[in-house]
Structure formats: C-alpha cells, structure tokens
Amino acid sequence: MNYWEQVRLDVIVRELLRDANDFTSLLFYFFSGLKPHIQRATSMILWSLWKSRNSKLWEGIDTPSPLIVQRAHNSLHEWCCLQRARQPNQNIHQDERWVKPPPSSLKCNVDRALFNNNTITGLNICFRNSSGTLHYGLSKYSLYTSPPSEAEALSLLEALTFPDNQGMEFVIFESDCKLVVDTIISTSTPSNEFGDIIYRCKTLLASHNNYSVFYVRRQANRVAHNIARASLSHPSPYLFFDVPDYVSPLIIAEMN
C-alpha cells in the first residue's frame, strides 16, 4: 500500500479493496474514476509493480517502493516525450534529394553507422557551402555500445561542437533520425542517457542563434550516410577537405 501512498491514491485503493468483488471490477472502477493523466501514471505504477514482482519471483531481488515509483515516473516521462516527438513539426525538410544552403551559410549533414553488433559506432560530419561543394568533413569511429538513437544523438552533438572551433556562424544541421530532431525541438527531455545527450545539444543550440536543426529523409542525406558506412576504412579521427572518391559522383550530381 505504501506505493499508492506515495502517489496519494491509497484512500481510493483501500475503498476499492473493501468493496470490489473481484480484480476485474476493482481495476475497472479504479481507472474509471481517475483523470486521464492520473490513469497514465497509474498504469506505469502497475507495470513497475509487475516488473518488481517478476524480479522477486525469478531472481530473488527485492525492489524498494521508492524505486518502483521512480521507475514508473521515469518511464512515463520518456513515453510522453516520445509521443510528442512523433507529432508533426516544422523542422522537416521534405525534399528527397540534398538541397544547397542559402548564400553565406553552410549545411552540415550528419549520420552514423553501427558495426559489429552495435559495439562500434562510425560517424560522419559533412559541411558543404551554397554551391554544394565540400567545405570539409570529419569521419571517425569509436568503440561504444549504444542504442541507435543514442548514436545518432551523439553524432549530432559532435557536429554541433565541431564548428564552434572553426569560426563558422550560419550553419544548417540535417539528420535523418526523426526521433533525435523531434526530441530536440520538444519542450521536454527524457530522463535517461539519450536525454542527457539531447540536453547538451539543446544547450549548444540555445547559445548559437545562427544554428538550426532539421530532419531530412535518408535520400537527402546520402553523402553523410555513405561516408559513415566507410568510416572504418579511414584513420580515426579523419578530417578531410577533398571529396572521397566513393561519393564524388553523388556530390557532383547534387551540385547540378
């Protein structure tokens, strides 16, 4: 009962336990009397309780009640952020091919590639000017085990910090990971490692008014994608000013 005391639902639960004839009726009446946002929180607490029950049954692990409630809170917060991230937003470039940036600005395309069962992360940061020619780029890889969303967010974070030391001012950043872009423009940030990376991205964007981030389709991010896939064939890190041979035809086509 102390789980429900922490979220101030203990009185309702006690009344239902006293009056309900069976579990199905109890659960139905419980949820029918709650406001929608309380229903979501309650669902997460029930899920967290079930998870703790399984941990106790199969692994002999006792979970303290504050941890059960906190886990439910964190999971609900992350779920809400992801739902908002899936909603349509204005930070989307719908073009199916790469588009040149405006004069006096640069466009930075970012992508990552995962190798060896996600234990190696390769990334590419590719800056191009208003004529479409390569300004310069960075290719690197690291031994880092992470979910794809974290790898994408780390790639964007690397891109945001890179021009800070290169004298760049007007930069448009493009990523083909919609979850990363949507979470960056969201007013909420998940309470996990992915959220920590997103928070650092948001901080950099807030301090650079001339930076902007957009989501693009994979077709419009092919140069960065192909270089990221080839990152293991380069030294790491590898700063390049000349177009790699394997993407030269693609860049020439996008310039025309």
> Runs with pLDDT <50, length 5+?
none
Mean pLDDT: 79
Structurally, the number of domains stands at 2
Largest sheet: 7 strands, mixed
**So how many helices?**
10
Q: What is CATH's topology name of the largest domain? A: Nucleotidyltransferase, domain 5
Question: Can you tell me the CATH class of the largest domain?
Answer: Alpha Beta
Topology (SSEs and partners):
Layout: H1 2-6, H2 10-19, H3 23-32, H4 36-59, H5 65-85, E1 92-93, E2 106-115, E3 120-128, E4 134-143, H6 148-161, E5 171-175, H7 178-185, H8 193-206, E6 211-216, H9 222-229, E7 238-240, H10 248-255
Helix pairs in contact: 4-5, 5-7, 6-8, 7-8
Structure, described:
The protein is an alpha/beta fold and 256 residues long. The chain has two domains: 2-85, no CATH class; 92-255, Ribonuclease H-like superfamily/Ribonuclease H (Nucleotidyltransferase, domain 5, 2-Layer Sandwich), CATH 3.30.420. It contains ten helices and seven strands. The protein has helices at 2-6, 10-19, 23-32, 36-59, 65-85, 148-161, 178-185, 193-206, 222-229, 248-255, and strands at 92-93, 106-115, 120-128, 134-143, 171-175, 211-216, 238-240. Strands 1-6-5-2-3-4-7 form a seven-stranded mixed sheet, with helices on both faces.
